Amino acid sequence: HGAEISVRQLAERIAEGQAPAILDVRERHEYEITRLPGSHLIPLRELPERLRELDPHADLVVLCHHGTRSLRAAELLRAAGFERARSLAGGIDAWAAEVDPEMARY
Could you read off the pLDDT of 32-56 as tens digits, one per residue? Predict the structure, then answer.
């Protein structure tokens, strides 16, 4: 397990019925523009106080807009014992560009 997963790898896992838990660390107003189905919103600034909402044993993919905040969040999670936390490389913007061209972009 590297620190990141590509949007194509995530799309393949979802298509195969092996979707990981998806944590969105963007702000609420960004989440309302567009989101991945089934994702759980915890803005990055709230994450340290809300770790108990997440399963430390789950396969967890963290996403943000372009992948910067999610990399920080994945590092924070791994340091807190979430060994299977990975960041979505390129964020939801890469997902929209490469996987779902119908998705709203901002």
Answer: 999 999 999 999 999 999 999 999 9
Report the side by side order of strands in the sheet with 4-5: 4-5, 85-88, 60-63, 21-24, 40-41
Contact 64, 31 (CB under 8 A): no
Cα end-to-end span (Å), the chain:
30
pTM of the predicted model, to two decimals? 0.96
Three-class DSSP category at 26: coil
Q: Which residues have a Cβ under 8 Å from the Cβ of 85 and sit 6 or more positions away? A: 23, 60, 61, 62, 73, 74, 77, 78
Contact 64, 70 (CB under 8 A): yes
